[in-house]
């Protein structure tokens, strides 16, 4: 495995696949995927989101890809760092390259423009013994899709900017930001995590949470390197796992 490879040096382009994550995972398991390999598809017939949720996308309208990360050099307990890296790369690209306003990360792994989701991330890890061998980082970014089911509460680059974009060119710009964020992770993971926390929806502000149908209000203090949400209630910090609570958007 050549760790000197940059993300996106090798890209496999597919017109249709069940899931780019599945395809990338198969290549890794067969020893056919080097670090930085990207699998991109025009359409996924069975795209997946976090915890089994589906990712609905119109054919050829959006950016759908998965990248392979050789994570064998990272401590197994630091798996959330790749999530932070990917969120930061997406957020920074949307703000600086496309001037999308009000970008934030809705914990743990969704990118929002205002109160609408524009991108989602699904990371699947390969653990071999006590070694975190590889990570498959799946990214869905809404680019040219204009209409979404009301329940999706979604938006796209087109809806936010009024412009259509070539998805392959958006993908190339994303590779640049992913590589920059990955280098930041290797050099100073604390800084990368600070960048992630600063981009969080509601960071250092009062937010409303829902837990077991009960509403709670606390101060968002960030996310730990293990991916736990840290909320301050009456000057005491409580930590929550994903799906233990829901953050309610204003």
Q: Overview of this structure, please?
A:
The structure is a single chain. The protein is globular, with a radius of gyration of 18 Å. The chain folds into two domains: 188 residues, 2-Layer Sandwich (BirA Bifunctional Protein, domain 2), CATH 3.30.930.10; 43 residues, SH3 type barrels (Roll), CATH 2.30.30. The protein has five helices and twelve strands. The strands form two sheets. The protein has a seven-stranded mixed sheet, with helices on both faces. About 3% of the residues have low confidence. The termini are far apart. It has 250 residues and is α+β, with helices and mostly antiparallel strands. 25% of the residues lie in helices and 31% in strands.
Give a concise summary:
This protein is α+β, with helices and mostly antiparallel strands and 250 residues long. It has helices spanning 20-29, 80-96, 157-161, 167-187, 189-198, and strands at residues 11-14, 38-41, 63-70, 103-106, 110-113, 116-128, 131-141, 206-211, 214-223, 229-233, 236-240, 246-248.
What attributes does this structure have?
SH3 type barrels; about 250 residues; 2 domains; about 30% strand; seven-stranded mixed sheet; BirA Bifunctional Protein, domain 2
């Amino acid at each position: 495995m050549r760790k000197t490879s940059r993300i996106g040096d090798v890209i496999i382009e597919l017109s249709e696949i069940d899931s780019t994550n599945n395809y990338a995972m198969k290549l890794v398991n067969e020893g056919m995927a080097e670090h930085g390999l990207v699998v991109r598809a025009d359409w996924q017939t069975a795209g997946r989101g976090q915890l089994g949720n589906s990712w609905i996308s119109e054919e050829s309208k959006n950016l759908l890809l998965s990248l392979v990360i050789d994570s064998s050099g990272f401590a197994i307990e630091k798996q959330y760092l790749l999530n932070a890296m990917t969120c930061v790369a997406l957020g920074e690209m949307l703000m600086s390259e496309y001037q999308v306003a009000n970008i934030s990360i809705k914990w743990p792994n969704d990118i929002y423009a205002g109160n609408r989701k524009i991108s989602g991330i699904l990371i699947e890890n390969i653990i071999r013994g006590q070694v975190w061998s590889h990570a498959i980082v799946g990214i869905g970014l809404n680019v040219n899709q204009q209409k979404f089911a009301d329940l999706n509460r979604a938006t796209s680059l087109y809806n936010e900017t009024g412009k259509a974009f070539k998805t392959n060119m958006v993908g190339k710009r994303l590779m640049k930001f992913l590589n920059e964020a990955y280098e930041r992770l290797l050099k100073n993971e604390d800084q990368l995590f600070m960048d992630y926390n600063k981009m969080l929806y509601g960071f250092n502000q009062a937010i409303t949470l829902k837990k077991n149908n009960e509403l709670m209000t606390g101060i968002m203090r960030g996310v730990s390197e293990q991916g736990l949400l840290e909320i301050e209630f009456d000057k005491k910090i409580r930590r929550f796992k994903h799906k233990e609570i829901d953050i309610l958007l204003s």
